[in-house]
Each structure stands twice: as C-alpha cells, then as structure tokens.
Amino acid sequence: MNNSDAVVIDGLRVRRGRREVFDGLSLRIPRGQVIGLLGPSGCGKTTLMRSIVGVQRTHGGSVEVFGEPAGSRRLRRVVSYGTQGSAVYTDLTVRENLRYFASVAAAPRSDVDRVMRQVGLAAHAQQTVDDLSGGQLNRVSLGAALLGAPELVVLDEPTVGLDPVLRAELWNLFREIADAGTTMLVSSHVMDEALRCDRLLLMRDGRIVADTTPQQLLADTGQSDAEAAFLTLIRRDEGEHRETRRSRREEER
Question: Rounded to the nearest 5°, which phi and psi values hold at 89?
C-alpha cells in the first residue's frame, strides 16, 4: 500500500449462504477524491462498503484502509460510515443529535458547530429533525458522519429518494469535503450522478466491470450520458463472459 491509497482490497471473498457475493475482488481507492460506487440494486455495493468499514464477515482475501486491516481499532476515528436511510433521532434537535454522536465518536464538542456550518444547518440548530425537509435530514446524517474530521467517509446511497435539486446540493457538498482532503466513497444506483465523481467504480453481479473516470467512461463507450455508457459496458461484459464460457466448454472437450 502506498501513501496515495486510502483503501486496498486484494482477493476479497464474501458469501451469503450458498451465494458467492464476491469471488476474489481486488481494487484500490485513492485518497482525497470523490469515488462513485455505482450499479443496480443488489449488485454488491453495500456489501463492499461494509467490508471497507470492517463490519462485514468475509471469507478470504484482505481489506486494508490507510495501511491497517479494515475494522481495526486504530481506524475508528478516521473512518466514518453513513448507512442507507436516516441514522439520527427525529425527536431531537439538530444540535442535540450532533452532540450525542460527537460523544459517541469521542469528538470535541466544538465539532458540532463546525459540522453544522459545513453541512449548511447552523440556522436550523434548534429545530427537531422531524420538522426538517428530506434534504436537511440527509444533511444531519452527513453531519454525524463528519464529526471528528474522518479521513474516509463511506456513504451508502445518501441521495436516494431526493429530488434532483437536493441531490445536486449534496453532491456539491461532497465535492467541497473532498477538496479539503477527505476521501469520499459514495454509492448510488442513479447513473447521472456518475458524472459528479472524480473516479467511478461500476459494479454488476459482485464484479467491478469498470474502474475509470467519467470522461474516460464516455470516451470508451462512445456515449454522451452515463446511463447509456453503463448499458454499453454491460452488453460488452456479457459478450466477454459468453466468449469465456464458450472457450471453457471447448477446452473441456
């Protein structure tokens, strides 16, 4: 692992029952960028994120984060995980929520005001979360993930269910956070969000079918939008797998 890597995964294997979710997955995630993990629901995005955070049971291979095994004690203050859906208490105010999560994360109390400013909620500090809009609610969850100034923030579909304007606001915020030096790994199944990332990991059926940049994705597929580009990659991937299976059958004969 070199200093430019935030995450290094080598030969990762994960099973659920008899189903092989990952069978030898390997990849590297660089520091200080917005990394988009995109693909259809059920392709393995959440399992990969849980593996990076260190809360997923694995069956082989290795996952290192900043040179340490995923989930190790030394990473608890530098890796933050935002799960799907709201992770805050709706009957508490914005400030009360963030104070609570700051105490859990052993972050200084001064972090609460810093984070509220960072996510644009300083004016809503005394509002109960139940009175906030959907976009503001997501910002509270994001604020909780930013307490303690983590070096890697892992967010599982933070923009799901939001309208295009709110999604754009959150992605602009992700960019600001990454520009300040934090690595942002953000999953989504909305393909137009791919163009807001520095780098893309496109998944399908537990495999990385592309590790690229938005510009290279469009150039390699000859498409003008991310969704069409992803569909092109899927068709290309299916063709390669058919050819591989045909070659294996011929060898077995």
Answer: -95, 120
Q: What does DSSP assign to residue 87?
A: -
Query: What is the rounded CA–CA span in Å between residue 169 and residue 189?
Result: 18
pLDDT at 189: 84
Distance CA 224, CA 221 (A): 9
Question: Which residue in 112, 140, 143, 110 sits closest to 128, CA to CA?
Answer: 140
C-alpha–C-alpha distance, residues 198 and 56, integer Å: 26
Instruction: Pick out the chain residues at pLDDT < 70.
Output: 1-3, 241-250, 252-253
Contact 50/79 with Cβ under 8 angstroms? no
Say how far apart CA 171 and CA 193 lie, in whole Å: 8
For tokens 């190790």, name the residue.
72
φ, ψ of residue 8 to 5 degrees: the values are: -130, 120
Q: Which residues pair with 16 in a beta bridge?
A: 19
- Residue 30 contacts by C-beta under 8 Å, 6 or more apart in sequence? 4, 5, 6, 183, 199
Residue 91 is predicted with a pLDDT of 95
Question: Which pLDDT value is given to residue 26?
Answer: 96
The SS3 assignment for 171 reads helix
Asked if residue 116 lies in contact with residue 143, where contact means CB atoms within 8 angstroms, the answer is: yes
Residue 103 tokens read as 């105490």
Q: Which of 180, 179, 174 is nearest to 196 (CA)?
A: 174
40 vs 227: CA distance, rounded Å: 11
Q: Supply the pTM of this predicted model.
A: 0.87
Whether 94 and 147 have beta carbons less than 8 Å apart is answered as no
